[in-house]
Design brief:
- This protein has 65 residues and is an alpha+beta fold.
- 28% of the residues lie in helices and 23% in strands.
- It is built from 2 helices and 4 strands.
- A hairpin with a 2-residue loop joins strand 2 and strand 3.
- The longest helix is centred in the middle third of the chain and has 10 residues.
- It is globular and about 25 Å long.
- The mean pLDDT is 90.
């Protein structure tokens, strides 16, 4: 399942892992961290750490089960 999201103005300066937890609540934190490390969750088609601060216009892609 491939999905993408566009970051809007209300999510600016949010941490990537907290944004994912808030908007895709069915995913546990450990799975978010694992998928970030493996590159299954990307921001603007680049791997990012969980502490990455989102900017307006960032596009988040995730490839999960």
């Amino acid at each position: 399942m491939n999905r993408s999201f566009l970051v809007s103005g209300d999510s600016i300066n949010s941490r990537l892992d907290r944004w994912l937890k808030r908007n895709i609540s069915a995913i546990p934190q450990s799975l978010i961290e694992k998928n970030l490390r493996k590159g299954k969750i990307k921001v603007n088609n680049k791997k990012k750490k969980s502490s990455y601060k989102l900017q307006e216009g960032d596009q988040i892609f995730y490839y999960l089960l």
